[in-house]
Design brief:
Strand content: 25-35%
Shape: globular
Number of strands: 14
Order of helices and strands: EEEEEEEEEEEEHHEE
Distance between the termini: 44 Å
Structural class: alpha+beta
Number of helices: 2
Radius of gyration: 18 Å
Helix content: 10-25%
């Protein structure tokens, strides 16, 4: 029986043996056997915390961006450098709107073809302090990848035939979750709603500010 291959970003990142993937989130670089395989590039200005992940030749592999005005904290992954809806690969969101202090981080991940999102396709379960994380697929008890956070270096064991570019994207989402920031440890419904309202207000203000002398300037594409 042929081995199950889980390819989401690119089948080239599926190898027949398990690998050790190290991701330096501070430097935005990932390694296999001390060899750089991905680099994260950030635009100088972006309302959506957009990041492009490139190979060693500088070719964009996928783009990760935060979706605006969402209570669950949704992130989206697109093909290459695109952010067009037609190039959406997957999205991930927190399983619960409310993420209190010391509660584990659970992300529900949906492939683009799963438009109804009744059930998730993949699950990321991380500790509240992001020290560990497990990634699994729906309908399977097998852990696809396990992460241990060693002072900002994500040390990841990726199982055979699992797309390690896909694993990279999911762990970038985990890294972006900021519900344990000082002063934000006890989110309640009012705070979450206020955050969403603030994002909407910011967009309205920017819309008004970027239109001058009859010329329309788009600050960010939806």
């Amino acid at each position: 029986m042929a081995a199950t291959v889980i390819s989401v970003i690119n089948s080239d990142y599926c190898v027949p043996n398990s690998i050790k993937l190290n991701i330096d989130m501070d430097k935005g670089v990932s390694y296999i056997n001390d060899e750089v395989i991905f680099r994260v590039k950030e635009p100088s200005i972006s309302l959506r915390d957009r990041r492009a992940v490139c190979d060693v030749s500088g070719n964009p592999i996928f783009t990760l961006q935060k979706k605006l005005i969402t209570l669950h904290g949704r992130w989206e992954v697109f093909k290459g450098a695109s952010t067009d809806s037609g190039d959406l690969v997957l999205s991930g969101k927190r399983s619960s709107i409310l993420v209190p202090h010391k509660k584990n981080i659970d992300l529900d991940v949906f492939l683009a073809k799963n438009t109804e999102e009744i059930v998730w396709d993949f699950k990321v379960s991380a500790g509240a302090n992001k020290k560990t994380a497990d990634i699994s697929a729906r309908g399977s008890s097998t852990i696809l990848a396990k992460m241990k956070n060693n002072r900002g270096m994500f040390e990841v064991e990726v199982q055979p035939n699992v797309d390690y570019g896909f694993i990279m994207a999911l762990l970038m989402m985990v890294d972006e979750i900021d519900h344990l920031k000082s002063g934000h440890n006890n989110h309640n419904t009012t705070e979450v709603a206020a955050e969403a309202f603030g994002e909407a207000s910011a967009l309205i203000a920017i819309d008004a500010a970027v239109t001058t002398d009859g010329d329309d300037v788009t600050a960010d594409q939806p």
